[in-house]
Amino acid sequence: MSTGTAAWQVLAGTAKAARKNVNQDRHGWTVFPGGIALAVADGHGSAAHPRSDTGAQLAVETFLYAVDEFRAGLQPELPLKQVKIHAEDYLPRNLVREWRQRIEDDLAKNPVTRDQHNLPATPVLYGTTLIGAMITDRLVLGWQIGDGDLCLVTPAGQTDTPLRNLSDTLGDETDSLCSDDAQRLVRTYWGPAPAIDTPALIALSTDGLSKSFVSFDGYLDFITGVYQRIIHDSEDKVSEHLQDWLEQASSFSGDDATLIAAWQGPPARPVPEGQPR
Amino acid sequence: MTGMLAPNTLLSTSSGEEVTVVKFIGAGGQGEVYQVRYRGAIRALKWYYPASATDTQREIVEDLVARKFGDDRFLWPLALVTGDGFGYLMKLRPPNFEGLPALFRREVRIKPRELVTACIHLVEAYRALHSQGIAYRDISQGNVFFDPGSGDILVCDNDNAVVDGRQAGIEGTMDFMAPELVRADAGAIPCTQTDLHSLAVLLFMMLMNHHPLLGAREYHIRLFDESAQALLYGREPVFVFDPTDDSNRPVPGYHDTVLATWDAAPGSLRGLFTRAFTDGLRKPGLRIRETQWRDALSAVRDMIISCQRCGRQNMTDPGEVGVRSCWSCGTLLTLPPVIQITTTHPPLTRTIALAPGARVFPHHLISDPSRHDFTAAAAVAVVAEHPRVPGRLGLKNLTGNAWTARRSDGSSDEIPPGRSIDITADTRLQFGAAEAVIRRLGTT
Asked: Which phi and psi angles does A118 have, rounded to 5°?
């Protein structure tokens, strides 16, 4: 486990599917002393979820807010077993509850009219997936509801997708923040020190990226390739190409494609707080 | 993830036997789990984090190992292992066993019959543990695994179990704790009595896919933390279906699952849960005992009916004749013939629906079985189709002894091993000391 002295660097991009009017993917991140939190959300986009781009935006913002609350509750003397309860129980519950509250606030500000959607004013209008992660010098944590991918890369280039759920790859239905008992549907990844090493790179992406590959191994090779290029070339070179890669992925998958990746670089280049886009 | 112990690290048991680390499996709240080699076989090793590797924990593990509790439903500590720290050996969990969180996330499908079977096995497992004078103290969704195909269960993380009444600190999950422990009442310690509350919570979660105390009161809490938990689980716990207090009902649109599962549950289970989470919350002595759960769950399992229209399994009670509709499609359920078996010492009547494939087991023939065995090899009778007359069902004798059958017209027959008797109303059978009669109760 690293001491966390190196600064976290972030690379992010998104591409809208050509057939869509609006990109329903959103992403964001925040850095804090000794760590980083990042998130990506994929609004469902179908007719039943006409406000899912807003839902995705609120999901990313709510996740980063929930992580702040989670971190505030991590007193140094808190036993690891209790930290695990905070991560696996409190955070998902607070995330879902806060997201629904923000949806209610949005519905109050922007009431649904019959001629707009002819749909009931419920969180279903805002349905979205969410993947979030937080890394500190004590913890590597991940949360996921619905499809998409969280990938950890070791310094040796080995990949791990601990939250992958094969049932997500079957059909188009996916779990959602708007699902009944959504907090119970959140999958969590628990990586405490000293059991784990800080990953060299963590990548979060919507399913529009991994679905663009013939096989899941192709996606893993892509993530490994991004990491190798960052190390051997430079972040700038990867940034130059990222948009092209995502647009190509989007054209293959027919879906919006978003990638946000973080890695520990030299301390000289801290990353400013990112605004979800 | 790599873990604290590198592959090929050599450790030793307290008796000096070699243990070799093979690979890291996962991390928990108290320690890590590894695959290890011991006596030429693959085993699992739990290895404590330094902060959890206390003298008290070591004493508990040594005590548990010394007990040599060989029940196959528990991944019991087999040997203390030491090195730069300590842990314990246990059997490796087979890959067909899934965790309950995956069930609650609906990632694992299980049919009602296997789900109820898992509940029966769970209740009997804790009964066996408690009969040894041991309290588990940390019953929760994270410590139980189940086989969706059979309903078999495995209880892990037994290293918090202690002799009933012993004082030992535990940082358990508050949502499974008895209210008096959450409130830290004077004199309240984790014990078999508090285990009974945790067991009731776990059963409710398995059958209803929801926590029994989380309703409207939780919904209105924006920031869930320790103080919120202490309120909901300790200071002011209210059952979501408390018949005299509707302040904590499930919120439609947010708690829809439990509204549906409660509605689909048979009255016998709803009654036990209501007692467990009303009287049982306030008076530990009134908590539902393992045998009460076992008998109710076993009776429900015997009366699981497949809907004649959509094929979905429905849990029913014998007393719900003519009133229950399929939870899935709403069709009024049609009850197949049943066999009512009455035991002796004390007399107890069990009702088993005789649908194709239904089995009569040895536990049906005695009043207080120590363990239910639902494997096909254990069955004493099975409902099978006539080999030459499709659709004609009979009850096949799977025992090594002939049955005597008496029909309503007064005639009688010997049913030798391997042969079947037609399923005809009012036919009486003698299963050893237990008497049985086939009935047609009508429509449930």
From this structure: 55, 35
